[in-house]
Amino acid sequence: MIAVLLAGARADLRAQAKPEMKKEEAPLRVALAGLVHGHAFGFFEQFQKRTDLQVVGIAEADGQLVAQFEKRYGLAPGLFYSDLEEMLKATHPKAVLAYTNTYDHRRVVEICARYGVHVMMEKPLAVSVEDARAIEKAARAGKIQVLVNYETTWYRSNQTAYDLVHDKAIGEIRKIVVHDGHNGPKEIGVGPEFLAWLTDPKLNGGGALFDFGCYGADLATWLMDGRRPDSVTAVTQQIKPDVYPRVDDEATIILTYPHAQAIVQASWNWPFSRKDMEVYGQKGYAITVGRDGLRVRLPEKEEIAADAMPLEKTKEDSVSYLRAVLLGGLKPEGQSSLETNVIVTEILDAARKSAATGKTVSLAGTH
Known about the structure:
This protein is of the alpha/beta class. It has helices at 2-15, 39-47, 63-73, 84-91, 105-114, 129-142, 156-166, 192-198, 201-204, 208-211, 213-223, 318-326, 338-357, and strands at 28-33, 53-59, 80-81, 95-98, 118-122, 146-149, 173-181, 231-237, 250-257, 260-267, 274-281, 285-289, 293-297, 304-307, 361-362.
């Protein structure tokens, strides 16, 4: 029964996949802004050989980092520029992929907007509501798309849990619990350029609170159909002040909605990496297990293990989604959309204030 249910939840969407996204199409011309985000390595390892993508320029001022990427990925020296605006003028990309620190996201978007260049950045959107609003304003003025890339957006398991909720298989949501974290960026050996800004409260917005709390805020906002929570309460700790003296390494955020709660657990203290969530409805629950699995309990049934259904081709990864939006006319929505991520920033900003003051922050009635 569950296999039939999960298949049904995705069948119509797969049937509607747009035929225009084909490998023989001209590649999407993209440029990179920055290389100090560790996910830049993942981009080249995952997408460098894709024929539907062409990297036309990379803006990075750190010569040592440039040399490292040149050698590791066989990149031509002519790809590199020390200045973002200079690169845009010379290369005319369709989109810029931002691998800067989070604080610089606003600057990247404001520059790109002046040239009509779309932006996809690594999560989260911004370090403050002020910057999120400025990004929103620049995107509107420049008529560009601004998208935010989360690893968890491309998890089959999350989409299937969402489908179970919205197909009313488990009833209206009552509680969401999201776990995201690992045993710490220094402990897992991130590069020095990445570690330097992850542990800087100005450049990252916080520590684990922003680094991993953004995942849960994003998923909760998506599951709740873009609704802003009524209140935000957060507790942060420095369990390892000798390792992370300037930022939190442990955070818990509680979001309240009229008929539901979301609990976001973000950590740099767990003994292993995890990204999973639990969604409890009035009649059942869905608990994600990694990228592709779930534990599901439906009304009058015992819990079973289930495989998540495949995603649409246009939503299998960040590049496929970016192509679908910019070349296929797909309207941004959900986890990647600017609208959702302005709310995510509101949540993180309120969580930071709550943790600092020990008080709940109300978002009810805010815009």
